[in-house]
Amino acid sequence: MALLRKINRVLLVLLVLMVCLLLHSTLLRASIRPKVSDRWKNLGSAAQGPQAKLSEADNVIPVIICASEERMGATMATINSIYSNTDASVFFYIVTLRDAIKMARRYIEKTKLKSIKYKLLEFNPMVLRGKVKPDSSRPDLLHPLNFVRFYIPLLDITHNRVIYLDDDVIVQGDIKDLFSMKLKPGHAAAFATDCDLPSTHEMVRSIGMQTTYMGFLDYRKQEVKDLGINPSDCSFNPGVFVADVKEWKKQKITKELEKWMQENFENNIYSSAMAGGVATPPMLIVFHDKHTTLDPLWHVRHLGWSPDARYSDSFLQGAHLLHWNGPFKPWNYPAVHIDLWEKWFIPDPSRKFSLVRPENLI
Length: 362
Prior knowledge:
two-stranded antiparallel ribbon; 30% helix; alpha/beta; Glyco_trans_8; globular
């Protein structure tokens, strides 16, 4: 009997050890398994008081905008134009890379923007590995922050509706009018079509831009032909849009966008040499015939496609939002309508960002 009890104790100890080993293994796998939330790091805080989670009930307008170190002054001009032209409560989600966090925070806290409500979010470029290939034609279009718009549901936000804006935008209207627009049932976003205003057509013709899917996708590729999208269908610009986050998640939009990024990585169905770079085509594919149309005055664009072609002053005065998409940015030189951008510019307190103007060109 004594021997039997000893054997039972040994077996019991072995059983406990096996359970411990299995539990340890399970916990270890869970700790190293990549999570969706691991792609993002919340490194920001509200400018006033302790940071708090915001929701729809807080009655704020959430605006997502990116802030790269080399274009920080552009982001701050956009924020200033929004903040100065509304009495609504706006909350800015400023997405940046690790090397620009301190600069962004200093830019806000040491200028007139210190009273805005905001949160800094760090984007992890590793999420793009295997989805974006190098392209030397316009390397600026391959900046990791260009793809933040694909990952809106992964941001540390709690809103069902958000506005996304590029950093080369100036808002002249009241942002709450854009936020309050109605999206059609089943639509996850609203964009401005490239076939909207006659004044826009005149600008586009003068600089030879494409306004259709033919200008963005390579219709020689079978993968593009199989989409069944008419090459003459009007394209849209994803630099300004209103998004229904709940619908975005329901339709698994991010997964679809990543699928087409991967397709291009493997089969080169579009490139940054084409009109809109590599961040636009996946959006065009995924949202084809599945988006609401913005009021065209809420996205007057192409101001950055030529240093010569100009809109009429009277037309621009009535525009609610101006977009310098294209290579000729208003903080550089040459550029057009720089007075409409520069009135919102706030000098960088750290002096890392400065305007390029004829007097400082050598």
